[in-house]
Amino acid sequence: MSVTTGMFYVFSTIMLLAAFRVITARNPVHAVLFLVLTFFQAAMIWMLLKAEFLSIALVLVYVGAVMVLFLFVVMMIDVKVEGLRVGFWNHFPLAALVGVVIALEMVAVLMGGFRTMDSADSVNVASSGLLQTSNTRELGILMYTQYIYPLEVATAILLVAMIAAIALTLRTRKDTKHTNPSDQVRVKARNRMTVLKMETTSTAADQTSVASNVETKA
After folding, report:
1. What are the DSSP E strand ranges found in 53-210?
2. 14: Cβ–Cβ under 8 A, 6 or more apart, which residues?
3. Based on the number of CB atoms within 10 Å of its own CB, is 175 exposed (0-12), middle (13-18) or buried (19 or more)?
4. Which residue has the higher pLDDT, 81 or 143?
5. Residue 80 pLDDT > 80
6. Better-predicted residue by pLDDT, 31 or 80
């Protein structure tokens, strides 16, 4: 057994155990952390398959953004674990049946994808020079040539969603106090500061003489 095969089995074992702990952990924070570990192991498997772009994207997008957001949300809100487990065993048979069906469908799809190429296809791929280029370059060429229109549609949808989110969160509310930056820039000193003329106060010597006079009268 080669080193690559041994590392694949190690990463796969850790990933399966972490994925199992995601659904069996009682603490939601622990479940999110196990899911992060699962994504890391999946990224390492992508590295073994020489799909470095997918591996880095998995770490940056899911671990660095999505799962960190999930972790913050779970830690900030007060999740009642006892309430979530009410009626668990009543719905367990249906959930187990759905899980088995999904697992069988995934096996049927993946078994077709694991078929090796025949000799004619491998010769054609080798002759075309695709094996000499990197996975990231070929993915970029395919994305920006054959799938350029779906990519543009997806970017437009994401841009509209971002603008809509900003518009929803920046609505003017009457129950909050806010300042206008343009008014702050144009403000003048005489509008902010008022000079008051007050009578001069007595000095310390005058206060001492007044105190001595009070004592003599007493």
Report:
1. none
2. 37, 41
3. exposed
4. 143
5. no
6. 31
